[in-house]
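Below is a filled-in request sheet from our internal design queue. Each sheet records the structural input a requester submitted and the sequence that came back. We keep these sheets so that new team members can see what a complete request looks like end to end.

REQUESTER: design group, bay 2
PRIORITY: normal
MODE: inverse folding
CHAIN LENGTH: 721
BACKBONE (tokenized):
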């Protein structure tokens, strides 16, 4: 940032960084904008003059501050300020360099500078997240390289004007361009960042009335430069300022300065401040050092060779400060984000009420998050870094470790239940999932553990109660079965004796009474048989026979008996077997008959007029087995759809009034359903109140391979029924 023009007088130098005028004047009246415009032009003039004066004084200018001012303005406040840069440059050229406003050079140089800076700001605003401050080291590198490249082009373009105006010879063109380049670069590395951090946010809020979100975030930055919060911090703040002054004095003013090259001392305060205060501190310190250098050069002039090294060193120090400061700020942000995400995690864990563990693949506790340490087997501090098997017995930890391995291998989440003696037995439901790693080879798992003791106890209680209820129900069923069995013996006695008495000579009145006794005993016997069957099915004691039988013969026998009952009620009972139905079957004909009797019996019972039909179809036939589909259809009272499932439960009737009107116990369908299931089939009903019912069931039978000749006679007979 030192412009080396020792061989030229100030008046010979070309105007450094002028600007252009335009949109600035078209805005609506805002006192802040007007003030900004006037101040900018004034500052531009003054800073440029300062450079000119310093050149006169020490023979060179250390850096060119107006360049920093221009870029900060365009980046911070927007490209619409480009005309202001042209105007400021124009005024500066006239006042400081006495250029004629009517010459071509003044227009060329200021136009070139305004356009170059506007283009530079446009690129930086677009490709680097610069709106406010450089936020990552990557952005800083981009900024440095882009700024250096752009200013290099500008410097070589701008220095042409010196040759054009005969202010320098072609021979000095290269040195002049280089000087311009370094001078601008230093300003862009130390003044622009400083202004972007400290001044433009404030200006922006004045001009627009609001602070952009990013800048608001900056103002709450963790960097401590702007907030000497306590005494110690203030002391450090002072010491850091003093270190800059000391470095400047020792390197440029002390008696060692002449003998030794002590410029490297500048790094010490810059590094210290950057490390402690991040990018905000670093930009301020770099600016202070650069401004201080100019003052020191005025007081203690240096030789040209030393000035050249100083100029290059200042460039390096500025870049170092910017990089280091950004790096630290970036790290501070990362730290803060980490702390925030830790906080979020804690908040999350306190709301979900779970303990969260991070385990490595071997079962070492890497992290534990909980709001209730009593849920841990030991305090968290004792667990971290230790192997879980040190605290948990193998029967607890081994299955969990096995799951860790599986989860890491498959990537799929798994759950496991375990209990800990804490000191009362506490149950946990753990969910294990993989923690992804950046190299794609995860080595740790996350395990959340929820205290499920209450629900576990409730579950156990429920199981106990269910078991108790089941065994009570079994005992009742067995009692019922025993009672039925015991009751049947005397009942058979009553029936037998009644038959014997009925065979003797009796008065008509006595006969009528005895027949009523026989009828009641018969129905009591039917009921007891039903209960016995049901209890046998319930207790799993009922076994089916597997014998050969002729289907049509059995159907005929069964339905013939039922037909008499139907006729008594004036109903018609017919049955039909499809042609594909096999005749020779293996199974339990007695139970098939019981099922059909129940269903047809119900159909007769619940039907007042019309026909009852029984139909048989083959559903699935293989070489060895046949699945048959039976349908019993009536035109009776029907069943409401919400009762369709209930009627297959024991002791349930579709309507309690049926008991009063039709009698029955609600056992028939329950037994039928279980018998059908034992025969490998299912039972269902299609029915609507008033429309009649269709009871369907399927049953599986074995097939007997015999010549199919015996069949048809009976079948034909059945069809005609
Ligand atoms: P029960 O007939 O001895 O009451 P079931 O288990 O055989 O017992 O039948 C249960 C209930 O299902 C009957 O009470 C009746 O309400 C209904 N139900 C069964 N079959 C029919 C049918 N064919 N038509 C109308 N309702 C029926």
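RETURNED SEQUENCE:
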């Amino acid at each position: 940032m030192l412009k080396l023009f020792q061989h030229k007088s100030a008046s010979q130098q070309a105007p450094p960084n002028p600007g252009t005028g335009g949109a600035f004047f078209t805005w609506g009246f805002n006192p802040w904008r007007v003030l900004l415009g006037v101040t900018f032009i004034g500052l531009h003039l003054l800073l440029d003059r300062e450079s000119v004066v310093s050149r006169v004084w020490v023979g060179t200018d250390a850096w060119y501050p107006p360049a920093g001012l221009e870029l900060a303005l365009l980046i911070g406040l927007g490209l619409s300020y480009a005309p202001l840069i042209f105007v400021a440059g124009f005024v500066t050229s006239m006042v400081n360099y006495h250029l004629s406003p009517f010459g071509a050079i003044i227009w060329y140089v200021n136009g070139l500078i305004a356009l170059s800076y506007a283009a530079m700001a446009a690129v930086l605003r677009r490709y680097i997240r610069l709106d406010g401050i450089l936020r990552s080291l990557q952005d800083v590198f981009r900024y440095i390289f882009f700024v250096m490249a752009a200013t290099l082009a500008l410097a070589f373009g701008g220095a042409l004007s010196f040759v054009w105006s005969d202010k320098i010879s072609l021979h000095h063109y290269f040195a002049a361009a280089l000087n311009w380049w370094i001078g601008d670069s230093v300003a862009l590395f130390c003044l622009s960042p400083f202004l972007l951090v400290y001044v433009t946010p404030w200006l922006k809020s004045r001009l627009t009335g609001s602070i952009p979100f990013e800048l608001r975030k900056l103002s709450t930055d963790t960097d401590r430069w702007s907030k000497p919060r306590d005494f110690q911090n203030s002391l450090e703040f002072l010491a850091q300022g003093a270190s800059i002054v000391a470095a400047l004095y020792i390197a440029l003013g002390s008696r060692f300065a002449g003998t030794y090259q002590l410029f490297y001392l500048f790094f010490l305060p810059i590094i210290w401040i950057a490390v402690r205060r991040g990018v905000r501190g670093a930009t301020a310190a770099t600016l202070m050092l650069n401004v201080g250098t100019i003052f020191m050069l005025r007081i203690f002039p240096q030789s040209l060779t030393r000035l050249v090294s100083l100029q290059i060193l200042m460039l390096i120090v500025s870049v170092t400060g910017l990089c280091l400061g950004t790096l630290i700020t970036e790290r501070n942000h990362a730290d803060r984000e980490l702390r925030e995400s830790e906080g979020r995690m804690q908040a999350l864990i306190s709301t979900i009420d779970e303990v969260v563990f991070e385990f490595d693949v071997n079962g070492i506790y890497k992290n534990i998050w909980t709001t209730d340490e009593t849920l841990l087997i030991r305090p968290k501090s004792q667990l971290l870094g230790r192997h879980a098997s040190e605290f948990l017995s193998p029967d607890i930890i081994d299955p969990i470790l096995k799951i860790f391995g599986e989860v890491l291998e498959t990537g799929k989440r798994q759950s496991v239940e375990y209990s800990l003696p804490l000191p009362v037995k506490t149950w946990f439901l753990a969910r294990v999932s993989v923690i992804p790693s950046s190299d794609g080879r995860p080595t740790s798992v996350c395990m959340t553990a929820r205290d499920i003791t209450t629900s576990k106890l409730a579950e156990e209680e429920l199981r106990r109660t269910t078991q108790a209820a089941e065994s009570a129900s079994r005992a009742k069923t067995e009692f019922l079965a025993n009672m039925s069995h015991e009751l049947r013996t005397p009942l058979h006695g009553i029936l037998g004796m009644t038959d014997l008495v009925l065979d003797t000579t009796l008065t008509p009145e006595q006969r009528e009474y005895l027949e009523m006794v026989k009828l009641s005993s018969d129905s009591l016997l039917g009921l007891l048989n039903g209960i016995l069957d049901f209890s046998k099915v319930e207790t799993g004691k009922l076994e089916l026979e597997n014998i050969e039988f002729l289907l049509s013969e059995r159907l005929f026998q069964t339905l013939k008996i039922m037909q008499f009952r139907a006729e008594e009620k004036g109903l018609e009972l017919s049955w039909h077997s499809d042609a594909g139905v096999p005749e020779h079957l293996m199974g339990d004909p007695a139970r098939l008959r019981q099922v059909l009797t129940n269903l047809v019996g119900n159909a007769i019972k619940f039907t007042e007029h019309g026909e009852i039909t029984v139909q048989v179809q083959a559903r699935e036939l293989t070489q060895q087995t046949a699945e048959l589909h039976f349908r019993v259809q009536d035109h009776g009272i029907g069943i409401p759809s919400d009762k369709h499932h209930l009627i297959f439960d024991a002791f349930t009737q579709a309507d309690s009034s049926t008991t009063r009107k039709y009698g029955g116990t609600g056992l028939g369908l329950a037994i039928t359903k279980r018998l059908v299931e034992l025969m490998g089939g299912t039972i269902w009903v299609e029915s609507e109140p008033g429309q009649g019912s269709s009871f369907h069931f399927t049953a599986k039978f074995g097939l007997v391979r015999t010549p199919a000749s015996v069949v048809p006679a009976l079948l034909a007979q059945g069809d005609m029924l």
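SHEET NOTES:
- The CA atoms of residues 240 and 269 lie 7 Å apart.
- The chain is about 60% helix and 10% strand.
FILED BY: M.R.
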